[in-house]
Amino acid sequence: MKQYPILDSTPASNPKPKHTNIVFLKTHKTASTTIQNMLFRFAERNNLTVALPTQSCGHQFCYPLSFSTKFVYPQKKPPNIITSHMRFNRYAVQSLMPDNTIYFTILREPASMFESLFSYYGNHSEAFRRVPQGSLKAFLANPLKYYRPQGKNAMYVHNTLTFDLGGNKDWPRGDVASAKAFVAKVEKVFSLVMISEYFDESLVLLRHLLSWDLEDIVYIKLNMRTEQSKKSLSSDVSEKIYAWNSMDAYLYEYFNASFWVKLSELGLDSVAKEVDLIRQAQQKLMKSCFGGQLPLQRSASEIKRKELRPWEPSKKVGIVGYELPSNIGKKAKELCLKYIMPEVTYTTRLLYNQLLQQRQK
């Protein structure tokens, strides 16, 4: 009997055993919070241990410091899953995880990603704060006027994906040999590099890689900006973003191409059918959780329950969250809350529950 009756119409379970030792490198502004939520829920359903940050690190592994095992909250059981923000350190992570661990991550088209970073971290990065009127065009006209490699939160300003993956954000543009070598390192470690613009197609590849069921990858989008917070980009602005973040652009173009090779190997028609099944299951989940209607997305300030409010970096940037209707049943409420729970709230909850289980044994 399935634990989650909301998704009873999903296909039968995959006959292969599910992979449960997983590292997801959570990158910035790439829809990675939605994937993290998926992994948190999977861990709870299957009684797995998630490596979580020490309290001194907050809800991230002391980012932007390079990952160290000392950043992990000590627990009796070895971890099955790592999914919180870190700056990737291959050897430190591998020392913590079993040899059969599967690694994956996600990238986003560099222009839209940088616009999101500029908006989201505008008040937190020294470089972005120096820009007159917070103008993206002004920054791109002369990035080096504002950027200092060692400045506060400089990792959000230049080649952020590269930095998250453990690479040099100040990689010298035009050094193709170093770029190729870095891509080869990433490809050697990560079995799948998902592409944010093709999120559902990425989930199909992930499902096959991990031998998971459809219900394991159904999701509700989290940590999105309100439409008013987003800006459209001209081709000229996009080109300048690519030039400034040239290593990120190199990464994205390489792994976007390899992503489509993987989809073709699986069969594009087969992928399209699975995407349709994901979206059908998602619609059923949304309607079950939100009283027979699609949810009304609300900015954090409009959400009554404090623990369901996503973190907003400033008053200028609205982040969308959800609230459940009051007439939802108890079992459905318990399930649905997990789908919409913000990252910080869920991280705190998981740590509390895992420590409680340790004390009871």
UniProtKB/TrEMBL annotation:
Family of this protein: Belongs to the galactose-3-O-sulfotransferase family.
Keyword Transmembrane carried by entry: yes
Record's bilayer topology term: Single-pass type II membrane protein
GO cellular component term, pick one: Golgi membrane
One MF annotation (Gene Ontology) recorded for this entry: galactosylceramide sulfotransferase activity
Subcellular location: Golgi apparatus membrane
UniProt keyword list: Glycoprotein, Golgi apparatus, Membrane, Signal-anchor, Transferase, Transmembrane, Transmembrane helix
UniProt name for this protein: Galactose-3-O-sulfotransferase 3-like
Main location: Golgi
The organism of origin for this protein: Nothobranchius furzeri
One BP annotation, GO: glycolipid biosynthetic process
